[in-house]
Amino acid sequence: MLTPPSHDDLQRQIDQVRAELVELSRRTLRSARISGGGLSITDGAELSVLHHETGAWLLHVGNGIGPDAGKYFFTLRRDDGSPAVEIGTATGVAAGEQYWSLWDRAGNVVASDDVVSGSGLARPWVPMPTTTILSSSIPTTASTAFVSVQSTGWVLKQQPLAALQAVLLSTGGATGSARYTVNGVQVGPTLPITAGQFGWTSIQNVDLPGGYNSYVRLELQVQRINTAGAVGGVFVATQRQSL
């Protein structure tokens, strides 16, 4: 017949279990794997990855201080502690609104969205291409074969498409044709140049060949079809994302 444990035995076992639970609660999780589920951080808790030597934040998601107080923010830093990517909260005109920013190692914001308007980029400032529209300044030719009248030169491909628009000109009653080429190969349809024409064409979106950071050269070519006068043109080109 088993002897039931005494009150003292039960108390010792309870104390032992309590001590083990306390010890488990103090232990640092060394390694974990989540399979077929997820991890939720709730009730104002935060997530941080700290540098093993300096203790600096390398990754942090949580409530902020200063302008970020009361809002969640995100920061990703390099090994030296300098910011790389952040979602923070603006001050000044757009106080309280959050923005995304990309930083270089010198501490400069090299890319960010526009927090004031809520649309588009704040950095970098994107240059707007220009072209001459004075008829006497537009290059012309009487060639009956296609010749290039304007070129981008060799530029690096950053996006998959280019948006192209030209100003085409006819002088002396000339008629002709115009076309765009990329790396010497025609892209898009041939454009007619009518006698006396002087104006903008419709925007054309054309594919850019090659991989990212490969060199491409875009040109506008024209040719005269009849036997009088000359034809010419200039164009602007902007790289853009897929349609």
The total tally of domains equals: 2
Radius of gyration: 33 Å
Strand content: 35-45%
Counting DSSP H or I runs of 4 or more residues, the number of helices is 1
CATH topology of the largest domain: Jelly Rolls
Give the assembly state of these chains: single chain
Query: Which segments are poorly predicted (pLDDT under 50) over 5 or more consecutive residues?
Result: none
Shape: elongated
Distance between the termini: 84 Å
Question: Which structural class should the secondary elements be placed in?
Answer: mainly beta
Order of helices and strands: HEEEEEEEEEEEEEEEE
- Which range best describes the helical content: under 10%, 10-25%, 25-40%, 40-55%, 55-70% or over 70%? under 10%
Q: What does it look like?
A:
It is a single chain. With 243 residues, this protein is mainly beta. The protein has two domains: 47-123, no CATH class; 135-240, Jelly Rolls. It has one helix and 16 strands. The strands form three sheets. Strands 1-2-3-4-5-6-7 form a seven-stranded antiparallel sheet, with no helix packed on it. Strands 8, 10, 13, 14 and 16 form a five-stranded antiparallel sheet that branches. The protein is elongated and about 120 Å long. The relative contact order is 0.13.
Overview in brief:
With 243 residues, this protein is mainly beta.
